[in-house]
Amino acid sequence: MQNKKIQIIFLASLAALLLNLVWMPFFASSQSTPLREEDILPQGGIGSTLQVTRFPFLSFNKIPDSFSFSEASTSTSEANLFSDTGSQQLETPRALIISDTRGAGGILLQASVSGNFTIQSNGDNPNIPVSGLRLVTTDRVTPIPSDPQPVATKNGLIYLAGYQGDQNIIAPLGINFDETLGCNSFSDLATFTNPACRNTVSSNTLNNTVNIMDGCLPANNGRNGKIQTGVAYNLAVPPYTPPGAYSTIMTFTLSDNTDNCS
Amino acid sequence: MNKLPANTAIPVTRLLSFFVLVLSAFSFCLPTALAGYSVIPAPPIEHQFTYEIKPGAEKSGTILIENFDNTPVTISLYGADGTQSDQGTYALTTRFNKQQHLGKWITISQPVVTVGPREKKQVDFKINIPKDATPGTYSGGIAAETGGNLPGSKQYKDIISDGDGGTLQLPKTATVPTNNVTITSRFVVKIFVKIPGTVTYKYEWPDFSVLQQKGTYPTFRVEYKNLGNTIIRVQHKIEIKGFPSLPEPGPNSKFKLEKDTLVIDPPTVTLLQKSDAIIPVRWDNAPDFGFYTATATSTFSKYDITTNKLTDTRTEIHELKFYIPIKLGSPIGLSLVTLALLILGSALFFSIRYLMLQDLIKNSKTYTIKEDDTLTDLAKTSHIGWKKLAHINKIKAPYILKPGQKILLPKKNK
Fold first, then answer.
1. Residues A15, A121: one domain?
2. Alpha-carbon gap, residue B161 to A247, rounded angstroms
3. Same domain, A102 and A226
4. What is the tens place of the pLDDT at every residue in A112-155?
5. Bridge-based pairing state of the strands A106-113 and A245-257
């Protein structure tokens, strides 16, 4: 009985393997565009290799989830809302992961916002200025369960397992918690407003485009792997803001960094 | 020779089954390790497009979209103008901005494209330069965006209306209930276009100053303005020296100490035509106080997009003398405050003592020493200590009085 089960599993696995071997060349030959890089995928134990062609790429592996701030009561004073609670750790929904397999050139990851927070269906069209939306990043983000563990944590970024190449990407808005500076959690206002709590003094308000990762490399040098960060937000709601549900669209932009490379 | 018991021997078929099972599972996993999509210039172009196009002329190009996912992806493509981030790097306006130049001149053959699972698609675009376009170097690009904000879609309208794709009732209470932030992502393929004509290479460096705010390190503010129509790259560095001499920066510091000079070497700044950039440079771990001179050296170069060369390099130097005021909370500040309090306290003590002594002298009479008079007895009659009496009369040890000697004897306290 036991042997029969094993035989069934064996046959099923063999069929699966054969099916996959048939399917993979089809996948490879379905590329209609010129080839640039060859990845050799080992088929251990069979004694042959199968070449699957894939373009080197720069891609988002995960972007942070859309979210809503909690309710705020405004009257005569400004209200400050936070995307996260009073800890120094962000959860998976705030994770952002990019993949770079090009092995050549730099990366630039930026954030920008469509405009002020508005209520489109309200005739008065009140708004919350987007200059009150601030963003910080951190390497303290809970690893995504399906992803490999970090190989290195440097300058506010996590280089995930398998990463190869320079680990010199700058995270200008990376936060460094410091109780003496008033930034001790993701619900402390100083975490978002005190430039001394960040890697650089660059502005972190979203009325302009801000850099999240700035990794410049000359074209003959490159990276291969995944890089992760966590993103947290704070919104200042001005006094006397009319009641309503306000919204905006935040866009993370990924591009090849050729700006500052020497 | 000992033989293994029969029940511990692992059958070959079982091992083989296990091996094939693992292998088949692994082989299925390989293609699915990739996720998302990517957009690049179609080969043989690498990294970005650069063109030289005359006014009224047209050029075309092709981008390549690759979907790594097992599900189709619908991507919105649009042209956008180049702009600058707050850190002085290239950035692209969003679809919500009004495109002014290159973003307006780009036409995409398929503004919305669906790419099947693990499929690649090429999409053509054209750049039409208006006849009245002014010469210069323009930056912009093609953005490829997914998410709910495809123009004309229900999702797009919902995002615009409530940011979360759902029905939203506006509350009538005096509170702001929800602030929705919808997050999307996009790729950018950069495009640079040079419209031939007179090149104006003109810039200004209007500001080099230092800001010192409570609770943070001194921050240098460097402002550059590109007044011309070409791209300018600025390499800059700030050198600091002064008193007290600067300590060795930490192992993770971005700064270098060369002899007695601290060198801060920020990234290169790219100035697009008719743009300006304000670059803040923080002096991390600056000392608690001191007198320093900061020298900023900026090297401006004209960047030719077609040759990828820097030309017309010019260097300018600005010098700034400044001091870092002592922070009372710092160790050195606390030491100085303690010293100041000690000096002040001592001065106060000796002043009071001097005034009291003067008062005592003022209220004294001259007394001639008789036989058998002692300092102790005379002090008792004046109700003061004998040491104080000796001090008033500058009598030193061994405190011997001679008959006929005149001394000041304070009047008795009433």
1. no
2. 8
3. yes
4. 998 888 875 555 578 889 999 999 999 999 877 666 678 888 88
5. antiparallel
Fold category of B37-167+184-195 in CATH: Immunoglobulin-like (2.60.40)
Q: Which of 43-72 (B) contact A at CB < 8 A?
A: 43-44, 46-48, 64, 66, 68
Share of chain B above pLDDT 70, in %: 82
Q: How far is CA B55 from CA A229, B43, B194, in A?
A: 44, 27, 10
Overall average pLDDT of the B384-388 stretch: 87
A64 and A11, same domain (yes or no): no
Q: Domain B203-324 classified CATH 3.40.50?
A: no
Instruction: Please check whether residue B19 is in contact with residue A45, taking contact to mean a CB–CB distance below 8 angstroms.
Output: yes
Distances (CA, A) of A101 to A96, A107, A165, A223, A224: 17, 11, 10, 7, 4
Tell whether A31 and A115 lie within a shared domain: no
Amino acid present at B296: A
Q: Find, among B146, B138, B134, the residue nearest to B78 by Cα.
A: B146
8 Å CB contact of B34 and A59: yes
* Radius of gyration in angstroms for the set of CA atoms belonging to chain B, rounded to a whole number: 41
| pLDDT, mean over chain B | 81
Chain length of chain B: 414
**A69 with A128: CB under 8 angstroms?**
no
B315-329: pLDDT as tens digits: 999 999 998 887 777
Q: Do B187 and A58 touch (CB under 8 A)?
A: yes
What residue numbers bound the domain in which A15 lies? 2-53
Same domain, A188 and A201: yes
Is A93 in the same domain as A204?
A: yes
A103: alpha, beta or left, given left = phi > 0 and alpha = psi -120 to 50? left
* Subunit contact B180:A68, Cβ cutoff 8 A: yes
B/e letters for A196-208, b = 16+ CB within 10 Å, e = fewer, are: bbbbbbbbbbbbb
